[in-house]
Structure formats: C-alpha cells, structure tokens
Design goal:
The structure is a homodimer. By secondary structure, the first copy, chain A, is of the alpha+beta class. The first copy, chain A, contains nine helices and ten strands.
Chain lengths: 343, 343
C-alpha cells in the first residue's frame, strides 16, 4: 500500500470544519460557539455549535482526533491483524437541525483510521499537540459483537509489521420533514457527481450502504431519503482514497446549502412545526438505539456533549400518531421515505 | 417451591392497571385511551395513554402478557436450567410525565415470569384468550451478553423437570425537576412501609438496587431520587413473594398521587418549563441507551408504540448547559440527585 499522510488528513479535516462553519454562518447570520477539549487518554477535539440561529435551531459540527497505544481486537473488525497496534482516529461529524420544517435535516461525517506498523516509528503527533495515552474503554457489548466478527475474519493471515493499516469512512444523508423531489434529486446528484471521478460504481454502492445503515428497524422506516455511506475504504491506495474522502467532504455545502436557501423562507404554521418535532423523535431513536458511533461513544467514556451534538433542539412524542391520508405529512412516508433511485 | 398461580397474578395485574387509571383520571379530569393489541407470536396487551391532560402531559400505562413455546438460553440468565421451556411473562409498566415542572415524573413496573416444568401440562392460557405462538425474536446483542452470563452461571446443576421456575420483579422511582425534601421522604417512606411487612432488609436492598440501575453512566448522574427496584425475586415462596409484589404495586398511588396533589397548582413560568424539558432529555437518554426492557423490546420485534409509552411528550437538548450556581435548578443536582437515605 502507498505511504499514508496522517498530517495531511488532519489538516484537511480541520480545514473542512472551518469552511463548513464559514458557509453556514453566511447563511444563518449567527456565529458558532467553538469549544476545544482534550481527551485525558490522548487526543482531543473542537466541538462547534450554533444554537437558536436564524436558520438553524441547532447545528453541531465536531472535529475529533483520538490516539491510542494499543488497539483492542474489538475495534479492528475488518482488519484483525491491526489488534495491539498503536492507532489514530480522526473525523469531522455534523448534524444540522433547521428551524423551518420545510428545510431538511442533514448529517455528514468523514473520518480516517490508521493502525501504525510496529516496525516503523511511533505515530508522530507533534502536529497535533496531543498526548499518547492509554487505550479507550471499549464496551463489553460492542466488544462481543466485534469479537465474533474478528473470529470469523481471523483466518490466520500473518500481519505485515512493516505496513500501516488504514482506511477512510464517511458519507452524508438528508432527512426531510416535507418532501420535494428537486431537493432529493439535487442532493443525490451532487453526491453522484462528486464520486464519478473515481468510477461509476461507487455512487450506487455507497447509496445502497446508506439506505441499509440509516434504517430504523423497530419502525421499519428509513431515516430519510438517504445519500451515500462508506466505511473501511482504502481500495484506491492512500492518495486516491483520500481524494475520494475529500470529494465527499467538499461536496457537502454544495449538496445541502442550496436546498436550505430554497426553503428557508417558506411560510409555515403550528402544524408543520409540530410534525417536524414529532419526526425529530425518529432521529433521536435512531441515534440513541442504533447509531454505532453514538453508542460506542456513550459506552466508551467519550465526551457526552460532543457525541450528542446530533440531538435535536426540541422533540415531541405522541402515541401511535398517523398523518391524515393524502396530506403532505402522509406523502413524506409514501413518496419520499422509500427505496428509490433519485438520479 | 410452592405451587404458583399465574391466573391470580394475571388478574391482579389487570386490576392494578385499572385501579391506577381510575385514580389518575380522578386527579386529571381527562380519561385514558385504551388500546388493546395481540402479539402474532402469542399473547398481547392493553396500552393505555392519557395525552394533553390537565395535570399529565403524557401518562402511559401498559399491561402486557407474552407467551413463548421455547425459552432461549439468552433469556434465562439467573436460571439457565429454564432454557428450552415453555414460558410466560406478564407485567404492568407506567411512566407519567406531568405538565407542571414542580410535579415529579414517576415510573413503576411490576412483572412476573414463569418457565413451565416440562413434566407438567402446558401453560393453560384459556383465561388469557391468547395463542401460544413461537418464541420471541431475541436480538443477537442481548443474546450474546446473556449467553456469557449463562455460561458463567451454568454450573451443571440438573434441572428439576417437575417444578416451575418463576420470579417476580419490579419497583418504582421518582424523577423530580425541582426538589422538595418532603416529597422525597414521602415517596421513600411509602415504599419502605409497604415492604416492612416482609422484614426490614428489603427496603435498603431494593433502594440500593434502584440507585444502581437508574444511573446514567455517560453523564455520571442518577436519573432521579430513586425508589425501589428488585428482580429475580422468589425468596419468600410464591404466596409471600406475590404478596410482596402486590405490596409494591398497591403502594404506587399512595406514594405518588399525594405529591401530585401538593404540587400540581404551583405557579411556574417559561424558565421552569424549559428546565423540565431539558431534564426530560436525560430520561430519553436513559431509556433508549440503557434501559434493558426498552432495548430488549426494540431489538426483539416488540410493539414499538407500547415500548415507547415512556417517552416524554416534549424534550429539549442544548449544548453543555449548566444551571446558575445556587439556583433551584442547580439545587436539584447538588441536594437531590445524590446518593442519600431519604428515610
């Protein structure tokens, strides 16, 4: 595999966070709070939050960088040979909850993981200013699930101690409260075009993975109209895989902000607002019951407020509620939250 | 062990649900919606809900009765010898979210589980009107966790095929938004007195178990001011163990409703209402991330709307919020949500 450059990824991710914040502040008119934090076990982050904005009721975007001295087998599902190695994980994650119910909610995440080759020098973190502390406290439940996969995957291949093990992951997905075909098409088309440089196979593959991941099993409902999602990605070598990550990260503002501009001044009333808050309950249910990143973070002594950047500002639950047949609210379920090719 | 009487427990639980509903309707002035349902795999329930009441913004109380033909090892942690048996589970569970922030939230649950002796006749369910369907779809994750405990516990003791295996479980806990010592003392004293008939050891033991269970690890916060919690209880033989369950169930209205009467007309403003909705976020986090019953239900194809009777009507999240030192909101944390003997 090609030589990796963690520093370049680190700098890209920090820059991406800054650029997204700048664009969102231009749209909203209000500025983000910046909250830097250090992780006692090694690493740290920068959690940025805009609350009670003009356009966004709660918009969180976090950068985090975590270093560990010894990767638990549980954390190396796809690469069991990485167990025990020094490791480094970094990413940018965002969830934006707009105020106007006609503006869809959005989620985006881009991340990089590396398990350092033991025969090479230690991960150099001087550019990060972070200590190399102990390993994370991986939860028993996640560990058991992953241990099983590890056992399946561990076919006895000897690791190459001279090579780093690394991969990229990420994606974005859109969750409207009121559906507009042109918005869905725009969001998916932007993602498809961003990936097209790397071949035509990636968009359909990543779209499918997105639909599968963001599915609420207990409701048998998709979370939204999907997007793209990938993990464990290193198929193109470091340079081109990193370029693919950047293509997705860089496409975010173009995929989402034009939709915000188009819908943010739409007139709405109590009914739309109520439906938005009811649907946000599904977002909470997905993130707290199913989302691997959220559960892993909460169960492994992560920084709770940074993990829960994704929570909506206001949410409502009510018993066994169903929209009136034929209403705009019913149409969301029948015409948008379905398995569909948007482009 | 003494002869069990499932029918008597079934009738007690149905009666308890009816009596609590009657008492709450007297306090609120509005009536509950009754929603009966059948489980395709066997059993069913009655989910009752009062929404947008005068005193209660969302008050859910469910009765459920589930039958299975073959108990998975995963579901018989404390009694591995029960695996493979016909089984029956029944319970009443409630969570009440009052509108006035000065009225605390409350949770109560009483339940009975039995794994039938193979050498006796099948569980007779003619009094229940329920089919004896297939076993539940136990989730892989829960199964793995329990399988491990099963392996630990399975010391090779041969099961006695002539005896039913059964136990009771339950308890209640109080979650105030604004603390009042007399309310905490009343709630705990009522529980202590209810249990005193059975000896002085149960209240402190069940209080401790309650504090341990209703703890938000990711916040390092207790959910509320506690109460009592017990599980796998059959120590007194069927008659007296059932009597203990009834003592807890029957104590509920006396433990909670006088507090409601005392606080429901307290004047409050936007600030108290806001704090209440913020704190309700903790309730959501506990129930969706940690509560075993909720997770088990959602992951095992349970009836989602009945499981989520516990969700608050409205909730708010905001970033890294802390109450002003010395305020009533801060006092909740410093003087009430602490490890304390209230009686």
């Amino acid at each position: 595999m090609s030589q990796i450059d963690s520093k370049a990824v680190f700098e890209y991710l920090q820059g991406l966070q800054a650029r997204i914040i700048e664009s969102v502040e231009l749209v909203d008119g209000k500025t983000f709070l910046h909250d830097g934090w250090q992780r006692p076990e090694g690493g740290g982050g920068n959690s940025c939050m805009l609350e009670e904005g003009n356009v966004f009721e709660r918009a969180g975007i976090g950068f985090s960088h975590v270093i560990g001295s010894k990767l638990p087998p549980a954390a190396s599902v796809a690469h069991p040979e990485a167990a025990g190695r020094q490791w480094e994980a970094m990413g940018v994650s965002l969830v934006f909850h707009p105020r106007n119910p006609y503006v869809p909610n959005v989620h985006m995440n881009v991340r990089f993981f590396v398990a350092k080759a033991p025969n090479k020098k230690d991960i150099s973190s001087q550019h990060l200013g972070a200590s190399q502390g102990g390993e994370a406290d991986f939860s028993q439940t996640a560990q058991q699930v992953r241990q099983e996969k590890y056992n399946e995957a561990n076919t006895g291949t000897a690791p190459n101690d001279d090579e780093d093990i690394w991969w990229f992951g990420g994606g974005m997905d859109l969750t409207p409260y009121y559906g507009f075909k042109e918005d869905c098409i725009h969001f998916h088309r932007t993602n498809k075009e961003a990936l097209s440089t790397f071949g035509d196979a990636y968009y359909p593959q990543f779209k499918k993975q997105c639909d599968e991941y963001f599915h609420l099993k207990h409701r048998n409902e998709p979370r939204g109209i999907g997007g793209v999602f990938f993990d464990d990605f290193n198929a193109l070598g470091f340079e081109q895989s990193f370029a693919l990550l950047r293509a997705v990260g860089d496409a975010f503002t173009q995929a989402y902000l034009p939709i915000v501009q188009r819908r943010k001044d739409t007139t709405y009333g109590e009914q739309e607002r109520d439906f938005q808050q009811y649907r946000r309950g599904r977002y909470v249910e997905f993130n707290l019951v199913f989302d691997r990143g959220t559960l892993f973070g909460l169960q492994s002594n992560g920084r709770t407020e940074s993990i829960l950047l994704s929570m909506p500002p206001t949410v409502k639950w009510r018993y066994d509620w169903k929209p009136e047949a034929g209403s705009a609210e019913a149409t969301l379920m029948t015409d948008f939250l379905i398995d569909k090719d948007w482009v």
